[in-house]
Amino acid sequence: MSAKNQGAGPEEPAPVPSKSEQTRALILETAMRLFQERGYDKTTMRAIAQEAGVSVGNAYYYFAGKEHLIQGFYDRLAAEHRQAVRAVLDRETDLEARLAGVLRVWLDVAKPYHEFAVQFFKNAADPDSPLSPFSPESEHAREEAISVHREVLAGATRTKVPEELRDVLPELMWLSQMGLVLYWIFDRTEGRERSYRLAERGARLTARGVSLARFRLLRPLVHEVHELFTDFLPGMTRVLPDPGKGRGDRE
């Protein structure tokens, strides 16, 4: 027996979810199914509670309303994605490979929820809706997603990222991912094949752009792109920092 095997103890069993966690997960799973079957607007909290086999009061104890159920879905999707990308981020050091892997994994994780996403898209597309990915209510899931892109950049040891762009690029990469999500929602190709191709090509273009950004002459262009998004995309002026703040101190 090898020393490695001798030193390795038995694997610890996965922790068993508490009854409260199981109930919360059951309500969320039931809501996702009903939203897909009946549509978001036509599904009530009472119907969700009835299908889940819990009281209406119990359903409201875990989720204050349907919007909070969607936020629960966002949070779960973000957590599943962060866990699933671990292998990619631990293995790859090239920026294009890291970003392409992160986007592919998101498409893999989101695959079971495609029809559900189609159902509630019209609600999420409303810039004033709490379901919007740009809303204050979506901040936790949004920050989780942006933090993944920060890690993508931080571990891209084969690509030099200008220091003054490190704070701006993760948000721009997340915005690019939102474009991929929008395309994925409307993608009707088998297996969402075109979405995967878009992820690959988008990652290649982003990596090339970051490589070019090492030339100081082109860095203002990156800031211009960021300002374009924050000025014209609803809600982003409240979400993203001003890349110009503190720029003079760094240069």
UniProtKB/TrEMBL annotation:
This is TetR/AcrR family transcriptional regulator. Transmembrane segments: none annotated. Residues 1-21 are annotated as: Disordered. Residues 44-63 bind DNA. Residues 21-81 form the HTH tetR-type domain. GO terms for molecular function: DNA-binding transcription factor activity; transcription cis-regulatory region binding. InterPro entries: DNA-bd_HTH_TetR-type_CS, Homeodomain-like_sf, HTH-type_TetR-like_transc_reg, HTH_TetR, Tet_transcr_reg_TetR-rel_C_sf, TetR_C_23. Keywords: DNA-binding. It holds the Pfam family TetR_N. The keyword Glycoprotein does not apply.
